[in-house]
Amino acid sequence: MDSNKTVNPDLKNERQKCTFNPLELTYLVYEGRDRNKQRKEIENFFFSDPDLQDKVPLDFLSHKEKYEETIRKACVIHKKLLEYRSIAGHIDSETEKLLQSVIAAVLKDGNPFGLNTVMFVPALLGQGTPEQQSKWLKRAIKYEIIGTELGHGTFIRGLETTAHYDPNTQEFILNSPTLSSYKWWMPSMGHTANYAVVMAQLYTQGVRRGIHLFIVQIRDEETHEPMPGIKVGEIGTKVGMHAINNGYLGFENVRIPRNRMLMKNAQLPDGSYVKAPSDKLTYGAMMFVRVIMLQGAAAQLAQASTIAIRYSVVRRQSEMKPGEPEPQILDYRTQQYKLFPNLATSLAIKQSASFVWKMYTDNFVIKFDSSGNSIFYERAKAVCTSTAAQGVETCRLSCGGHGYMTCSNFSCIYGVATASCTYEGENTVLLLQTARYLMKAWQQAVSGVNLTPTVAYLKEALSERKSSQQWENSIPHIVKAFQRVSAGKVRMGLKSLQKRINGGFAPEVAWNSTSIELAECAEAHARTFLVETFIKRIAEINCSVALKTVLVQLSELFAIYTLLRNKGDFLAFSNMTPQDISGLQVWMENLLEALRPNAVGIVDGFDFHDRVLSSALGAYDGRVYERLFEEASKSPLNKETVNQSFHKYLKPFLKSSL
Amino acid sequence: MDSNKTVNPDLKNERQKCTFNPLELTYLVYEGRDRNKQRKEIENFFFSDPDLQDKVPLDFLSHKEKYEETIRKACVIHKKLLEYRSIAGHIDSETEKLLQSVIAAVLKDGNPFGLNTVMFVPALLGQGTPEQQSKWLKRAIKYEIIGTELGHGTFIRGLETTAHYDPNTQEFILNSPTLSSYKWWMPSMGHTANYAVVMAQLYTQGVRRGIHLFIVQIRDEETHEPMPGIKVGEIGTKVGMHAINNGYLGFENVRIPRNRMLMKNAQLPDGSYVKAPSDKLTYGAMMFVRVIMLQGAAAQLAQASTIAIRYSVVRRQSEMKPGEPEPQILDYRTQQYKLFPNLATSLAIKQSASFVWKMYTDNFVIKFDSSGNSIFYERAKAVCTSTAAQGVETCRLSCGGHGYMTCSNFSCIYGVATASCTYEGENTVLLLQTARYLMKAWQQAVSGVNLTPTVAYLKEALSERKSSQQWENSIPHIVKAFQRVSAGKVRMGLKSLQKRINGGFAPEVAWNSTSIELAECAEAHARTFLVETFIKRIAEINCSVALKTVLVQLSELFAIYTLLRNKGDFLAFSNMTPQDISGLQVWMENLLEALRPNAVGIVDGFDFHDRVLSSALGAYDGRVYERLFEEASKSPLNKETVNQSFHKYLKPFLKSSL
């Protein structure tokens, strides 16, 4: 880390106060001393390259300039990546994650080649025949072509793109029959990708055969001009992820050879059709991305917490006691309340993400529920991404005006975090899928079926009485209360649903009418899952007492904070009474106070490289005011004392009434 | 309004379903038929000017180009404004509000001359002597000079800028002793304003005399070059309000004549000093802005609701019943739950804003508490602005990916809305000021003093017992419950505070340690104020039964939604029991269902001009998909089929591994 020489004295002082060794936390976070060393080497390999520095912060550029600059950097970093791979030889999955996180830091507003890696290649792997793989896979992996993949929204059956097979020419003819059937949003599609895997409704011999995947060439490899019949362009500017170059795509009698249908699981010898053995495999490609998203949510919140906490010890404001100097704003209890729960939440999400990751890597395939969806993912994704996004905004707001500046980097982090609430499963849709799973699980429990561990508490709850026990301010008791709340809400949700069905509503109408309650069941279940997982994993960690103390404080804070934010549910469904709230409130306040001296130590332990944080407020050295001026000095407007608009517009206007 | 010919059929259908006449709501919102006519005329006068149209959406431009284009438009519109004023003659305060809202729509990312009107002129009016006013006021009002005003943060006493009086030359010498004493954030200061009212610590005869205001020339009127010793520039890019050109300002021995100190309330004949009769008047200038902010919060949320609701009847997605067509997404109960409470909240905030506005205009001065702050403002501002900002984000998220696009205009609205949480009183600071007021009010109630109407319920609560009455699903009962909750939280907050003081903590430390609870007291009080005011004012409105029914539904929805979101407090502090929740939940769901057919009618009644909404998703005609394509076609990237970065970077990279 940087020398302490130029470090802000307040930040230096915080580091001296810390009761544990942040490096121990770093090793824990990055899975050991060796992995951490490897991470530092990789960061150094990429971050030290002057070609990967922004000369002017992207925020000052036009939309077009941002795109061009990002393509430049993307080419440089992917070239380096190929170089790294060829030197390193075998790359394991942990190293792969490290590489991806470095790329994400350099291309912080989105990686224009990202979809090639996380969607195009997996689609070929999962759905291509050996012949198709040998033709396309190597080219994609070596970046001879840039592929993307076209999502389908939540209603696959309604997909309007058609692929008619013409047995005479042995070609498929792709069409977008309406404006609303144009693909919209495909990453990198605007001006970057030259190939895409496209979902379309297949028709052969005049019969609709269902959804299939096709490799479609979008642009000429030499000229990059769109292929005949391809209508392509970018969709425009967005809240964040400006460099992703999302595009639209329409087909007007686009003809592709027969061997471009991905046919690992389907055959089409002469227009006759053999269905794939399992439709579910079509979903395989997106699963890896989804698992990675949870880890992203944890990282985004941890980064925002780091920036806000470092800034809050440097920033001094107002007075607490008359006549005394302005306190560090982190000494305000309300500021601690904005930041420390988010710090704790970032770790809670990280633990759940690791759990889901383990389910993924252990089984290699995701466990699907009856509708073909990944239950572990859905359960965690909606609550993790929305909590992370809101947390990032809370961190930004806690930094006042300076948080509002883009050089704080909060807005960029938020732009990525809030996008996760929508893509790869819109959060409300996922909550309702989880709710459907929970309703079934409850009914199974009632009929005596044993449930998988993460919902086993539903069955236990059946035989419990709410008020059988006095409230206890202990973590095991609180975890139990989370389970009771979740079970209670599931029971109530099902009751409301059945009441409507018994009242004569069609099941679908009843479901829709009850869906507010049902979504809340899923949220309560996810919170229970997060609290349980966090508490359990922290307890299992093998580390020094000093560090363990802090980690336990964080896990307790997460549990109590989450409880108090939902105290209505606990009063309604657990044995907590209004008289128990004060005690929990004081416990939470004591945890905030206990964490205060170690706050900087904890975020130092996360050890985000300054380049990853990319923030004038959150750098390791805490030179906030100097960096704000440095960033301002990069503004092209500040390169001249007088802007041309004065002579063109302002002066004539000011003089016009004289 | 536009012809119905090209209107989206789903939207057309919604309009036929509406049970009331939206025009009646429009007249109500805009205070009568005549005012509404005037509004339309003003909108037409400005919006029809082709010079005020954006050729390219600002989002595609660079930061510098955005600035230049905004200065151009600001000059055009302010010239038109002077023209309008000279034709119209006397302009009353309602007309002034209409004019300001049209300017805000054209300069939707901030008005670079706004501070001249809302800060600089009022500062001169409030603090200038007759001589100073005759010299500066007319010039500022006619835009011969552009002034701004320098805020001071929440800690005025800590202000570091110094003004030393030199009796020899009869000048003040201004200095910024440190980097952190540089003014930062002043609107329009970067490259636009040429004058500023500056706060500084006055020193005469070696003695510190407290804070005073000075008119400082920042830039030469002919060349616009910074004056000697003035260090000025812009601070850089921000989350929103990109055109405001916030700047930094430092002084290095800047000499200004003696008559530039605003001296209405102070005298300085020869270096000897007579203090102003009241420091509080110094705050006067900012009060008008603060009151206007509440109305802004209501408008932002109403606009976001309009966009999201219109989009939600055009957008169809998934399936509710197998085999049926995709439903309009507004038919999903969860979507109604995201949007209708925000619609209701926008009206609730509007009613409270009108109340505060009336307090302001009736008394001409704001009522201050003992620390010189406006209690009515503080009470409402924190909760109104943060609720509005969160609501705008909820509306955006409810529109999925398309909400994420800047052409939806949500991000621009959010950028302005979220800024309000920080400026003119940071929300947490204001909540704690309100809490201090509430603690005093409670203590007064205990000692038998009568309280002002808005807190009179605290006294009533003293003599009540929580469980004296069964819960009733009626609005008067719910309003009462809000008061009980607020009183209960105030009582608990004070108890926690006193417990800490009795335990030996210094009062300031005890206050800080209890501040989470205290801020929550202020929030509960503000919610009570909002609910009470909304219910009361809707009841008073004189209108058709058809419209009244809908308005009552909205006020009930606001009350019940707010209650359920805070049900823990109601279980703890009111006579509500867990068994009462289901009934309230069903009541709320029934209100959502009842409002569904009128949702479009209500937002049509708000009658925002398409130019004000500035949204591809929310226009009156509902041509969402056509407009999305139109907006995409404006992207400079889409003007060429192949971007230069392909030849410069991408092609060499793709070919490099061959």
TrEMBL record, chains A, B:
Domain Acyl-CoA oxidase C-alpha1: 283-439
Pathway this chain belongs to: Lipid metabolism; peroxisomal fatty acid beta-oxidation
One annotated GO molecular function: fatty acid binding
Binding of FAD, residues: 148
Coiled-coil region list: none
Domain Acyl-CoA oxidase C-terminal: 477-655
UniProt-annotated catalytic positions: 424 (proton acceptor)
Cofactor annotation: FAD
A GO biological process held by the record: lipid homeostasis
Keyword Oxidoreductase in annotation: yes
Keywords for this protein: ATP-binding, FAD, Fatty acid metabolism, Flavoprotein, Lipid metabolism, Nucleotide-binding, Oxidoreductase, Peroxisome
Cellular-component GO terms for this entry: peroxisome
Boundaries of every Acyl-CoA oxidase/dehydrogenase middle domain copy: 147-254
Gene3D superfamilies named in the record: Acyl-CoA dehydrogenase/oxidase, N-terminal domain (1.10.540.10), Butyryl-CoA Dehydrogenase, subunit A, domain 2 (2.40.110.10), Butyryl-CoA Dehydrogenase, subunit A, domain 3 (1.20.140.10)
Domain spans labelled Acyl-coenzyme A oxidase N-terminal: 21-146
Keyword Cell division: no
Subcellular location: Peroxisome
PANTHER family reported for this sequence: ELECTRON TRANSPORT OXIDOREDUCTASE, PEROXISOMAL ACYL-COENZYME A OXIDASE 1
Family: Belongs to the acyl-CoA oxidase family.
This protein's name: Acyl-coenzyme A oxidase
Species this chain originates from: Diploptera punctata
